[in-house]
């Protein structure tokens, strides 16, 4: 891998000190672009500005940039709105390959060489077409260092860099989005194993993180928009009206709303089942291997996390507590500042905030 790429695809390293750090993150995904800029205050970091811009349908799909001009335009608009010219940028979970491997040697260069030799075991692509990065994830039973890594097709990285070039935004670092979710939502030093669920508009992303490092992740190809569509169909209303009804009624049973609830549940149960299958597999595996800890809680984020009754509904199936996330966990204490954004709305910004937090040197300490 060329040095330029290696410098740009970083999973979780503290950034070099000599760079001017933009404290900005841009989360590019199927439905749109979220951009944030943090500011350093007397009591820590606060959210300075944020923007959420929709992409035209089909411009970005399944982790691929389809309509480069359209994506570049929306990126530029989002960057202008939040006042940034450089940012840390997400790479899509659906195109990533997570892996873990014990390595000997003490330096990152030695770990990389060890991983390079076995790269084709972890990433089903020709090694020459693969870009990857690794971080230390503790120690194996035999005392070796355990590294966690993430790989992408170089093409995905090149396409991302090129669309950002086109939009005039300097990419400070690229990062797999699951690392960004984890950095925003779990407090520094949190050793727990947690399931992060991001229910967006077009996708639902789940990841299992241990000690804030993702060990498993997957993207489900539908999200809250299918709930909106279910409401729209049930009531014969417009999309905007359906979104309002969805937010107000959620999936809470009340007398007389049985038909509505059945329509919602037919969709939401598909999301629940996908999550529950993955979680059950993990919980069974750890009970046998003991190399891993079981998931003790789920953290729900994304624009749909606030759908009334959703976390309770998931909790019933997942058999672990389900809490809605706090995307400001690692910013200044809320005793010191009041975010300009609603809590409900903030739930869609976990990845963007996690990306911006890369520039906070203490984030992964
Ligand atoms: N207050 C609310 N109550 C319920 N649903 C909401 C609320 N606000 C937004 N949503 C829903 O959240 C979704 C948008 O969430 P989010 O911004 O996380 O998606 P996205 O990141 O654009 O999508 P994706 O990650 O799939 O590309 C839409 O389905 C919208 O209907
Ligand atoms: Mg999203």
As residue ranges, the low-confidence spans are 1-7, 11-18
Topology-level CATH name of the largest domain? Nucleotidyltransferase, domain 5
Which structural class fits the helix and strand makeup? alpha/beta
Question: Hetero groups bound?
Answer: adenosine-5'-triphosphate, magnesium ion
Over the alpha carbons, how many angstroms does the gyration radius reach?
20 Å
Number of domains: 2
Mean pLDDT score, rounded?
92
Give the class-level CATH name of the largest domain. Alpha Beta
Secondary structure: helix percent: 25-40%
The CATH architecture classification of the largest domain is 2-Layer Sandwich
Terminus-to-terminus distance: 27 Å
H/E series: HEEEEEHEEHEEHEHEEEHHHEHEHH
Short key terms for the protein model shown above:
single chain, about 375 residues, alpha/beta, Nucleotidyltransferase, domain 5, 2 domains, 5-stranded mixed sheet, 11 helices, 15 strands, about 35% helix, globular, disordered N terminus, binds adenosine-5'-triphosphate, binds magnesium ion
Describe this structure in words.
By secondary structure, this protein is of the alpha/beta class. It has two domains: 1-188 and 330-365, Nucleotidyltransferase, domain 5; 189-325, ATPase, nucleotide binding domain (Nucleotidyltransferase, domain 5). Helix content is 37%, strand content 27%. It is built from eleven helices and 15 strands. It has helices spanning 3-8, 68-82, 108-122, 154-167, 177-185, 224-235, 239-249, 258-289, 310-318, 343-346, 350-357; strands at 24-28, 32-41, 44-54, 60-61, 64-65, 86-91, 97-103, 130-139, 145-153, 170-176, 193-199, 204-210, 213-220, 297-301, 322-324. The strands form four sheets. Strands 3-2-1-6-10 form a five-stranded mixed β-sheet, with helices on both faces. The chain has a five-stranded mixed β-sheet with strand order 13-12-11-14-15, with helices on both faces. A three-stranded antiparallel β-sheet has the order 7-9-8. Strand 11 and strand 12 (204-210) form a beta hairpin. Helix 5 (177-185) crosses helix 11 (350-357) and helix 8 crosses helix 9 (310-318). The radius of gyration is 20 Å and the shape is globular. The two termini are 27 Å apart. Residues 1-7 and 11-18 have low confidence and may be disordered. The structure holds adenosine-5'-triphosphate and magnesium ion.
